[in-house]
Amino acid sequence: MSASGCPERWLRVTANGLYCEPGDFFVDPRWPVDRAVITHGHGDHARAGHRHVLATPGTTAIMRHRHPGDPTSYQPLPYGEALTLCGVEVKLAPAGHILGSAQVVIEYQGQRVVVSGDYKRRADPTCPPFEPQQCDVFVTEATFGLPVFRHPPDGDEIDKLLHSLTLFPERAHLVGVYALGKCQRVIALLRRQGYEAPLLMHGALFGLCGVYQAQGIPLGALQPMRDLPKSELAGKIVLAPPGAQNEAWARRLPDPRTARASGWMRIRQRAKASGIELPLVISDHADWDELIATIAEVKPGELWVTHGAEEALLHQARRMGLKARALSLVGYEDED
Question: Helix, strand, coil % (nearest 5) of the chain?
Fold first, then answer.
């Protein structure tokens, strides 16, 4: 690698996140900038106020919905198409995280860096699967970067929910899901497992479900919980943001059995502390084995870790013969 081509000379960590100096753009910046490339629509990556945003059509649709009236100029870039910014080639590849999620593939002076954003390797009916991109530098998350995190098949977790419905037909099942990504994925997984009844939902979830449906993702019949009297709520699945599970809104439910869909439900004490009776280990991030398999598959010369359980992943990468370092980026929260 020539000195002029060393990626750390032109892609550097700043207080505002990763900055590509020759292209004059940030990837998922923390504060408003002139030009931003956004990996996906979660609020810790897709903030409002940028002057120009480059992202997939799915991500731009999410950002327009979440930030109405924001004067940002959006440039949708479909997966696989290339754009040159001041001599830097940028492409977006599927990340498999949520609708519109992308890896940012940056090529400059003969070097290729892939900024993966958040990603998962499991099949998801609501978004294209992760596509490995061979590169010189792979920039990865490490949300579940510990060997304890090995996620079970998501179909098995959905079966637990459906089995609980048969065991407790007199109880409503209140399932905590994040509004963007997890909600729509759980709905799609339920449909895939044959559950065709209308799903009841907290009002805060409908807007983003509408964005998914407008992007061609079928979700089936969705209904506000308020449309049904309490006497008809037994045996129903009700989806709500995790923060709403303990609100007065939920008191209409008959003896609700609380569930939550998250990779963090792998930690039983965490589920118990949150009062979750039925933990569903359904994650939108790669688990430990998938992180390691992905690194081996993309064959980078160097690994950069943005956030999460950095040390274990760095240790494993070095055992695999890679140069590895932690970027320790701040401001990226978990939405799993």
Answer: 30, 25, 45
Map residue 203 onto helix, strand or coil. Answer: helix
Architecture of domain 154-280: 3-Layer(aba) Sandwich (3.40)
Q: So what CATH class is 3-148+285-326?
A: alpha beta
How buried is residue 285: exposed, middle or buried, by Cβ count under 10 Å (0-12/13-18/19+)? buried
pLDDT in tens, 26-66: 999 999 999 999 999 999 999 999 999 999 999 999 999 99
Alpha helices in the chain (DSSP H): 7-10, 57-66, 154-167, 182-192, 206-214, 268-273, 288-298, 310-319
Calculate the CA 198 to chain-centre distance: 25
Q: Are 217 and 184 in contact (CB under 8 A)?
A: yes
Please report, for the chain, the start and end positions of each structural domain, with discontinuous segments joined by +: 3-148+285-326, 154-280
CA–CA distance, 205 with 232 (Å, rounded to integer): 21
DSSP 8-state symbol, 98: S
